[in-house]
Design goal:
This protein is mainly alpha-helical. Helices cover 48% and strands 5% of the residues. It has 8 helices and 2 strands. It has helices spanning 5-19, 28-35, 39-51, 76-83, 92-95, 110-126, 138-146, 150-153, and strands spanning 55-58, 64-67. A two-stranded antiparallel ribbon has the order 1-2. A hairpin with a 5-residue loop joins strand 1 (55-58) and strand 2 (64-67). Helix 1 (5-19) packs across helix 2 (28-35) and helix 1 packs across helix 3 (39-51). The longest helix is centred in the last third of the chain and has 17 residues, at 110-126. The radius of gyration is 19 Å and the shape is globular.
Length: 162
Amino acid sequence: MKLSAQEEYGLRCLLHLARSPAAGSLTIAEISRAEGLSVPNVAKLMRLLRMGGLVKSVRGQAGGYRLARPSQEIMVGDVIELLGGQLFGPEFCDRHTGLQATCSHAVDCSLRVLWTTIQEALDQVLAKVTLKDLLCSEQQMQEFLTGPAAPARIPPVGPSTI
């Protein structure tokens, strides 16, 4: 399992917007330079993020893009869902049938239970992390996710919960 470049780069663009002054907006070129991404790629991401209601475009001399809502109201799970969808969704089994019309394990599948459990754990974490939470250092994020205050915000994930 892996996240796509679109999800990673989309989150990076949103974080860059979240770090910018509240009253300002950033152009595609500014975001592109700051994040080391191509202008066409950032343009595509901004279009998707705008259509998903996460950013808004501003016209005129000081035009560009800004967050559509405060960073504490944008859940990372919503961004991932918008840009790429779930790692394991209901259609997963339909796409992986092998040479048959339906999967030979459609009735009794231990793998489906594994993927569903992993997806649920991932959804629980991503539903509790906001864009604002990501505006910190790597060490601070590690402490946020695993430190003493984490159990109240993030459900523990491990053999005891899966």
